[in-house]
């Protein structure tokens, strides 16, 4: 029986109607709003309407987050495990039972501890005697240990869904503080309808939480301009949570330290003579608190901090500046070895696929190009306009470094990586730039509210139309989700998520036919009732019936598989990620 399907709420129209709410300006510490913008006298009708409006904003926030939750939960229920998820889920289960770091040292524990909350509720049977690499261990936990993979994956994904929704509140609060309630609602709408955020926020993976913690840190450090003693340590806490989730956060640490120092410098609470020292101290506080957060994430797993690299995952030796950096960082040994593993992975000759071209290595422009394909057109327009407004508008200019600089640094770091696997490596872009996009409403242009509402509505319609296939989304200019596989591959399109849907399709339309399968993913086809053979293991003339190929395998097809595909004709597709051919 196929998984239950539900329909998300379309809240774009309602959010658009809210674009008539009052707007606040960015205030420097020490200034008063009524001095710069004296409020007009409210009429009796206005005063009576104010209490009725008070509930409208929370209601719209709840509606936007509710539709996002519905979309993510539906996606979580319907999709089979993606490639990375079994590793994280199995590692989380191992944390709960073995209380030590054994698997997946290349990623710190915090994100997997969040996943472990759901795993603990699912309470799977864990074979602690299993000896194999982390990928095999994940497959063993899901498919050969007597567990229900549908139930286990749903509970593992649920804490990440909740965390994604909480980050939506950060987006709303950040934009509201910068440009008012209307900006907050516009930013939240863009976040809540972002196909990339919905797709990856519904998975038991680490990309969204790492980006969300960095966003939270930037927001808290912005607030430190008014209350530095409270918000500088809290900003360091959020940064530490990001570092304890994914090592790709490391490049933004100096940026957030500098922003913490700048916030204290601009706070106006310190004497000018002591301001430089106080600013330097605040940068140190951000760094120290961030490092201090990483240690407890390991201590929670194993209070004795035991660490011995597994034989099947050797730790490479790293030389030069990278090696020196790893040695000097005051972090647990398993964290530093995880960094060495990540540096080793960067030296691997990975294959990429962009606009129909298969290549080995990486392209510096891959992520911008992939974002151009996979971002709704209205969202792209609002991102650009928001960034321009933040830089051009004097009262928003102080906030620009807190929104745009972390985005630019993280994107530049990701663009230098060797793994051109998907926009998930830049998932921070739709999160940060949603805040910038909301700031368009701070511009005193008569047409700004109407155009912003129209573009947000366009984004909402585009997002709802792709339901429930958010992972392979591409915008209308590139043909929509059905055409994404012609331009991108891997987690942009086909991450193994549609094996269950394929099983349903074969039962419904092709029962009893011979199936030849080339599947890219971590699922086990036979568990879902798919009896298939690998067409690459026999002569092409023996392959008759249905040829079923994951679209990432189609993109990378060479030799015998390419010959088989060229001599077949497509007759069906599943989830815009798997193509069925007739031979």
Report the order of strands and helices.
Answer: HHHHHHHHHHHHHHHHEEHHHHHHEEHHEE
Cα-atom radius of gyration: 25 Å
The main pleated sheet reads as: 4 strands, mixed
> Unreliable runs, pLDDT <50, ≥5 residues?
1-48
Structural class: mainly alpha
- Per DSSP E runs of 2 or more residues, the count of β-strands stands at 6
* Mean of pLDDT: 91
What does this protein look like?
- The protein is mostly helical.
- Helix content is 55%, strand content 5%.
- The protein has 24 helices and six strands.
- It has helices spanning 12-17, 33-36, 44-54, 56-78, 85-98, 110-122, 134-143, 149-179, 181-192, 195-201, 207-223, 228-243, 253-266, 275-301, 320-328, 333-346, 366-374, 377-392, 400-415, 428-438, 448-466, 499-509, 551-555, 559-566, and strands spanning 351-354, 357-360, 515-518, 546-550, 569-574, 578-582.
- It has a four-stranded mixed beta sheet. The protein has a two-stranded antiparallel sheet with strand order 1-2.
- A hairpin with a 3-residue loop joins strand 5 (569-574) and strand 6 (578-582).
- Helix 5 crosses helix 7, helix 6 packs across helix 8 and helix 15 (320-328) runs antiparallel to helix 16.
- The protein is globular and about 80 Å long.
């Amino acid at each position: 029986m196929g998984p239950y399907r539900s329909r998300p709420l379309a809240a774009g129209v309602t959010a658009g109607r809210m674009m008539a709410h009052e707007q606040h300006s960015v205030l420097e510490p020490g200034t008063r709003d009524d001095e710069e913008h004296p409020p007009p006298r409210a009429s009796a009708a206005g005063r009576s309407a104010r209490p009725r409006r008070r509930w409208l904003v929370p209601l719209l926030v709840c509606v936007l987050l509710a539709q996002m939750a519905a979309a993510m939960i539906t996606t979580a229920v319907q999709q089979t495990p993606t490639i990375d998820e079994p590793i994280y889920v199995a590692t989380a289960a191992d944390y709960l039972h073995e209380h030590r770091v054994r698997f997946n040292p290349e990623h710190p524990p915090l994100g997997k501890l969040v996943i472990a909350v759901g795993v603990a509720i699912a309470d799977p049977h864990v074979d602690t005697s299993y000896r194999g690499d982390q990928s095999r261990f994940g497959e063993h936990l899901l498919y050969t240990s007597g567990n229900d993979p549908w139930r286990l994956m749903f509970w593992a994904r649920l804490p990440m869904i909740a965390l994604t929704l909480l980050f939506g509140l950060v987006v709303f609060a950040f934009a509201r503080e910068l440009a008012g309630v209307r900006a907050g609602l516009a930013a939240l709408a863009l976040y809540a309808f972002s196909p990339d955020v919905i797709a990856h926020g519904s998975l038991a993976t680490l990309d969204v939480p790492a980006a969300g913690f960095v966003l939270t840190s930037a927001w808290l450090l912005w607030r430190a301009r008014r209350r530095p003693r409270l918000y500088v340590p809290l900003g360091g806490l959020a940064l530490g949570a990001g570092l304890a989730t994914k090592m790709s956060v490391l490049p933004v640490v100096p940026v957030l330290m500098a922003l913490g120092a700048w916030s204290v410098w601009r706070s106006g609470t310190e004497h000018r003579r002591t301001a430089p020292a106080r600013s330097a101290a605040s940068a140190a506080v951000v760094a120290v608190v961030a490092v201090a957060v990483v240690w407890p994430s390991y201590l929670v797993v194993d209070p004795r901090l035991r660490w011995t690299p597994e034989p099947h995952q050797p730790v490479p030796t790293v030389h030069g500046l990278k090696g020196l950096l790893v040695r000097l960082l005051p972090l647990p040994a398993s964290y530093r070895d995880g960094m060495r593993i990540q540096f080793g992975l960067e030296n691997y000759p990975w294959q990429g696929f962009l606009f129909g071209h298969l290549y080995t290595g990486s392209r510096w422009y891959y992520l911008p190009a992939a974002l151009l394909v996979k971002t709704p057109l209205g969202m792209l327009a609002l991102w650009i306009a928001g960034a321009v407004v933040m830089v051009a508008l004097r009262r928003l200019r102080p906030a620009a470094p807190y929104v745009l600089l972390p985005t630019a640094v993280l994107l530049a770091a990701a663009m230098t990586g060797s793994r051109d696997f998907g926009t998930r490596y830049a998932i921070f872009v739709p999160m940060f730039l949603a805040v910038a996009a909301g700031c368009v409403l701070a511009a005193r242009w008569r047409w700004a509210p109407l155009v912003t509402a129209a573009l947000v509505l366009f984004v909402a319609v585009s997002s709802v139309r792709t339901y429930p296939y958010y992972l392979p989304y591409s915008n209308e200019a590139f043909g929509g989700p059905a055409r994404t596989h012609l331009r991108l591959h891997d987690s942009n399109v086909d991450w193994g998520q549609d094996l269950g849907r394929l099983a349903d399709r074969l039962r419904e339309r092709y029962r009893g036919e011979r199936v030849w399968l080339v599947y890219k993913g971590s699922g086990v086809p036979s568990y879902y009732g798919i009896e298939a053979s690998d067409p690459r293991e026999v002569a092409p003339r023996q392959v008759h019936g249905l040829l079923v190929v994951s679209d990432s395998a189609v993109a990378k097809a060479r030799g015998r598989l390419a010959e088989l595909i060229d001599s077949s004709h497509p007759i069906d597709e599943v989830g815009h990620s798997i193509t069925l051919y007739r031979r």
